[in-house]
Automatic annotation (TrEMBL):
Lineage of the species this protein comes from: Bacteria, Pseudomonadati, Pseudomonadota, Betaproteobacteria, Burkholderiales
InterPro entries: Acid_phosphat_B-like, HAD-like_sf, HAD_sf, Lipo_e_P4
Protein name per the record: 5'-nucleotidase (Lipoprotein e(P4) family)
Source organism (scientific name): Xylophilus ampelinus
GO cellular component: cell outer membrane
A Pfam family per the record: Acid_phosphat_B
Alphabetical keyword list: Lipoprotein, Signal
Length: 262
């Protein structure tokens, strides 16, 4: 998933007094880049373990797919295949906001690294007569740079039918439907955001409806839908930093609790 517009903000006292810092806001979209979350993505062995786990599961599901179906896999790019955390850290350190100009410079540099496990999975699918289609909200003017970035990481020869970037609205619904019409129903959707999981998910607008989508499709997670961890941004992030605090559930401090033990 491409990063949303971000705000420069400090949320003190959250996550055991870790400062959550982010980039500049726009009128109706914002997110707070968490310093701790970025450190976790770049340094924690647990992050790498989770991405390996996701892609090992994806490979198992791909290998066990019915042979009478076209083996089509639809993947997001940002924070699913391409790791853009270095751009987010740059925003943080420079104290500058996310803008199309700085994001496009980052894309043009083709410097994103690979999410662990992603390249090996893509190569396995392509070497096994499968088809990978990338659907991303990177803007279409970044197509050449995105292909260059993928090629540097070992994914070459991606044509325009298999790299569908944003040309208008941000919703991926029409592009999902385009793939289904051309290739058939994908056997796997892989992404870091719920709106990466097909046309129904791409149409969901609210957090409550996203929760309902997960409940109604719980059997699909780990079978058709493979989720990558992204604690930095996404549709889960409230539009205002104040909502981060109001949305938290806390212990009320009541000392009357059951004590278990001798």
């Amino acid at each position: 998933m491409k990063p949303k517009k971000m705000r420069m903000d400090s949320l003190v006292g959250l996550l055991f007094s870790v400062f959550l810092v982010g980039c500049q806001t726009t009128l109706n979209q914002s997110a707070s880049i968490s310093t701790a979350a970025l450190y976790w993505m770049q340094n924690a062995a647990e992050y790498r373990a989770l991405t390996y786990q996701a892609y090992h599961l994806a490979r198992e599901r791909f290998d066990n797919a019915p042979l009478d179906k076209r083996r089509v896999v639809v993947m997001d790019l940002d924070e699913t295949v391409l790791d853009n955390s270095a751009y987010a850290v740059w925003c943080l350190q420079q104290k500058v906001g996310y803008t199309d100009e700085t994001w496009n410079r980052w894309v043009a540099d083709a410097a994103a690294t690979a999410v662990p496990g992603s390249i090996e999975f893509i190569q396995h699918v392509r070497n096994s007569s499968g088809t990978v289609v990338f659907i991303s909200n990177r803007i279409a003017s970044g197509t050449t740079a995105t292909r260059t970035n993928l090629a540097r990481l070992g994914v070459e020869g991606i044509d325009e039918k298999h790299l569908l970037l944003k040309q208008g609205e941000s919703s991926k619904r029409a592009r999902f439907q385009q793939v289904i019409k051309a290739e058939g129903e994908p056997i796997l959707y892989i992404g870091d955001n719920l709106t990466d999981f097909g046309p129904e998910a791409a149409s969901v607008k609210s957090m409550d409806n996203l929760q309902a989508f997960v409940r109604s499709h719980k059997a699909d997670f780990g079978t058709r839908f493979i989720v990558l961890p992204n604690p930095v941004y996404g549709s889960w992030m409230p539009s205002r930093s104040e909502e981060l605090q109001s949305g938290l559930k806390a212990w009320n401090g009541d000392s009357h609790r059951v004590i278990v033990g001798p």
